[in-house]
């Protein structure tokens, strides 16, 4: 099957991978878009894992103010070098993350930032809720886990669907940037302000 420039362009837009990587993936899978996309996503995840332990001490402070001035966000996004922090891709990522936080209002950056007692309270609440609904005992644990996952997607930044693309999680967005920029990228902290509301830094957002 002939691999066209349009096919490569569409795959690049979907994955954030380089033109060459997209062309090679399409060739490897005979032009199958979904297989090539899955392969590149897994490759990007592997790249991100390799770089996850590397120090990310450079970066930028991004601010976003929603039109009308009622909501504002301040975000610290880190990378490894000032060269990467000055690239358009990194700046665009920081802007997209700040915009997303303004709309989605996450409470935590990652699941690991949630205090254990908060998760246990949620588990107990969902178990009680399921029992009150008459769910059989042998499936309650599964129901609780499913409702916890949904709560994570509502409240944890990295687990939330990206406001510009509901099929993509924020974590996927960052992994794509890591794969393309070849550096570790970390959301260190953020604060979201809404006019008339007392706002505290998100738990887990401060080092």
For this entry, give a set of tags.
single chain; 207 residues; alpha+beta; 3-stranded antiparallel sheet; two-stranded antiparallel ribbon; 8 helices; disordered C terminus
Describe this structure in a few short sentences:
The protein is of the alpha+beta class. 53% of the residues lie in helices and 16% in strands. The N and C termini lie far apart (52 Å).
Task: Characterise the protein shown here.
By secondary structure, this protein is of the alpha+beta class. Helix content is 53%, strand content 16%. The protein has eight helices and five strands, in the order αααββααααββαβ. It has helices at residues 5-15, 19-28, 33-51, 82-85, 88-104, 116-132, 137-155, 170-181, and strands spanning 58-65, 71-79, 161-162, 165-169, 186-194. Strands 1-2-5 form a three-stranded antiparallel β-sheet. A two-stranded antiparallel sheet has the order 3-4. Helix 2 packs across helix 3 and helix 3 (33-51) crosses helix 8. It is globular, with a radius of gyration of 20 Å. The N and C termini lie far apart (52 Å). The relative contact order is 0.16. Residues 203-207 have low confidence and may be disordered.
